[in-house]
Design brief:
Blueprint: E1 3-8, E2 11-16, E3 20-21, H1 23-36, E4 44-47, E5 53-54, H2 56-69, E6 75-78, H3 82-90, E7 98-100, E8 108-112
Parallel strand pairs: 2-4, 3-5, 4-6, 6-7
Antiparallel strand pairs: 1-2, 1-8
Helix pairs in contact: 1-2
């Protein structure tokens, strides 16, 4: 799974560099979040600006990542495409996550796979 790690202020930014986050990538995504969040930074912002398709497994993986981080380290979502935004609205996940309209400006980045 392609992703980029970066910082925006005190937040850790995980930018998903895939067009799909579905059942095929859900487990890999959760492992990636677990490994990536060993770095300090609160909150964690998940940049989904390149994700055009998200299914229930992908959404479940995002919820699982939120639970993994716990309440002391909130997971925020940024840069939703129109189809993914619609799914968040239909499932009412837009009331669970803080959602930013745009991806954050990243101070520093590191590509990862």
């Amino acid at each position: 799974m392609q992703f980029t790690l970066g910082r925006a202020g005190d937040a850790l930014v995980i930018a998903v560099e895939e067009t799909r986050l579905d059942a095929a990538l859900a487990l890999t995504f959760k492992d990636m979040v677990r490994e990536s969040t060993t770095q300090e930074g609160s909150p964690v912002i998940l940049d989904l600006s390149k994700v055009e398709f998200l299914d229930s497994s992908g959404l479940g993986a995002i919820v699982g990542a939120m639970k993994l981080l716990g309440p002391e380290r909130p997971l925020e979502i940024a840069g939703l495409t129109s189809g993914v935004r619609k799914l968040f609205r239909l499932t009412r996940m837009d009331t669970v996550f803080k959602i930013h309209d745009r991806a954050p400006v990243i101070d520093s980045m590191k590509a990862a796979e």
